[in-house]
């Protein structure tokens, strides 16, 4: 099985989400990035409950590239502490997973 992951991050503008998506795909760190939004996020930050409009990036990559994806997101991200969460893909279409692996760097 290909070691596929989905990595999630949220950001404050559609333009920043698009920049993250374009950069990751161009660098072959991601096979695909879906941008969803706007969404409303409610969270605790520095002792206060905050609500913000955000855009969600769903990044399709491999476990081997997680550290590089995280570094690229941190370079492009405006937040002091960006959400960067990787979730292993435990099953999926073999053809899709092979396409994903072929679309990113080895």
Give a short summary of the structure:
By secondary structure, the protein is α+β, with helices and mostly antiparallel strands. The chain has helices at 14-26, 66-76, 94-103; strands at 4-11, 32-45, 48-62, 85-88.
Low-pLDDT parts are none
Supply the CATH architecture.
2-Layer Sandwich
Radius of gyration, whole Å: 14 Å
Structural class designation = alpha+beta
Distance between the termini: 15 Å
Strand percentage, roughly? 35-45%
Major β-sheet profile: 4 strands, antiparallel
Helix content: 25-40%
Overall, the morphology is: elongated
H/E topology pattern: EHEEHEH
- Major β-sheet strand ordering: 2-3-1-4
Q: Tell how many strands the DSSP assignment holds.
A: 4
Mean of pLDDT: 96
Count of the domains: 1
Question: What do we call the CATH topology?
Answer: Alpha-Beta Plaits
Give structural notes:
- It is a single chain.
- This protein has a single domain (4-103), classed as 2-Layer Sandwich (Alpha-Beta Plaits), CATH 3.30.70.120.
- By secondary structure, the protein is α+β, with helices and mostly antiparallel strands.
- α1 (14-26) packs antiparallel against α2.
- Helices cover 32% and strands 39% of the residues.
- 25% of the residues are buried.
- The protein has helices at residues 14-26, 66-76, 94-103; strands at 4-11, 32-45, 48-62, 85-88.
- It is elongated and about 45 Å long.
């Amino acid at each position: 099985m290909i070691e596929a992951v989905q990595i999630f991050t949220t950001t404050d503008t559609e333009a920043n989400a698009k920049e993250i998506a374009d950069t990751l795909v161009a660098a072959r760190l991601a096979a695909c990035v879906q941008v969803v939004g706007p969404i409303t996020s409610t969270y605790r930050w520095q002792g206060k409950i905050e609500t913000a409009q955000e855009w969600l990036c769903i990044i399709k990559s491999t476990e081997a590239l997680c550290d590089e994806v995280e570094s690229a997101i941190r370079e492009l991200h405006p937040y002091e502490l960006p959400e960067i969460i990787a979730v292993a893909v435990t099953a999926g279409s073999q053809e899709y997973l092979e396409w994903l692996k072929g679309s990113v760097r080895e």
